[in-house]
Automatic annotation (TrEMBL):
NCBIfam families: TAT_signal_seq (TIGR01409). Residues 201-328 form the GFO/IDH/MocA-like oxidoreductase domain. This is Gfo/Idh/MocA family oxidoreductase. Residues 57-182 form the Gfo/Idh/MocA-like oxidoreductase N-terminal domain. GO terms for molecular function: nucleotide binding.
Amino acid sequence: MNKNQLSRRNFLEKTALVGAAGVVGLSALSSCNKKTQEVDYEFPPLLDLAPDGKTLRAGLVGCGNRGTGAALNFLAAGNDLHLVALADVFEDKVWDCRDKLLKQRIDIPEKNCFWGFDAYKSLLEADLDVVILATPPHFRPMHFDAAVQAKKHVFLEKPVCVDPVGARQIMATSKKAENMGLTVITGTQRRHQRDYIETYRQVASGAIGELTSAKAFWMQSHVWFRTREEGWSDMEYMLRNWNSFCWLGGDFILDTHVHNIDVVNWFMGKHPVEAVGFGGRARRLTGDQYDFFSVDFEFDKGEFSHSFARQIDGCANQLGERIMGTEGYTNCKNTIYNLDGSVKWTYDYPKNKDGRSTGVVKVSPYVQEHIHLVTAIRTNKPVVEAERTAISTLTAIMGRTAAYTGQKVTWEEMMKSTEKLGPDTYEMGPVDMEFPIPVPGTQHKA
């Protein structure tokens, strides 16, 4: 047994990261469980602030709202952290981001502001330690590979690609990063969220017995889109409306629902091996994406997960995950139930001055993941999360392919697929591409 593999029976003795409250909960829930299972998972350090150490200089590639937010999260993770460069395909995005940061008293030198399709290359030539990659996901594999070749630590926003070719490229670059001793943290913030982590510990200790099934769901109103403005070329329109085009965003089963899919993979300890599903388009106004997905994933030993997502206004909304076991079930976030529905365990959130639960974790998971990044760099204990997030992204792609085609799709097919979305060259102007809405039964697996 290696140092990262812990049986459920000796889980408490072997991990030094369980808090006092967690020890009580684990002891209570696992004392009667005589089964043992191997647990191979590297838990993040749940610090309130990264330790002091060498000054770290970061550059941001992708200056939209998520990129700007990620940059601020990085700066909030500890002391002596600096954002020193910006890059985006659009000049106005760069200056808008710079202005927002300036209001936070973060002044990016104009000489370190770059725009255009090759702006990331100019940014990587600056004096940097860390690169934050937050462009539309289509560009992530290319940018990630360039950042690793430049020997930079990376924060990699999810999803990490939009097609099987990109997923395999991320996996390969992940191995390069490991061999080079770099740290790569991804934007799967639930894996850095204290209540999710503690619930995972409980489940790993045997709190709900053997895992049998799961469901993942993200149903919400329609998100942002942009209509075409006069003077915009094909490429500019798609880039400014990237959330509506599959080649840029991967459809929302990747863009948002990948979070829930990743949680199921995490708790199950593996990815599914096949998928069957459906989806459709009802009310979207732009692009070529679906409005809803419903996918059944099957794992290697017959366990299954139902994954469903929707983005339509005026409907009932819900968000989350559920894992079923032979002795109970959990919402993955903060509660474990007996099979009869009674509560077996709940996460102990911090309390306010009146002694009441705040219902929120002490540190935002969006900041916690950057604390992990900075801690790994400063303690010289590299962590690379890119491959596991590529696996979760490819799981979502497998579900998307099943829905688009109406066919059963296997993991083996995804790992061999030649599907690569997007144009052959990147330049502003007309784009020789067609964007038909996928019709199940008429599409083919690439």
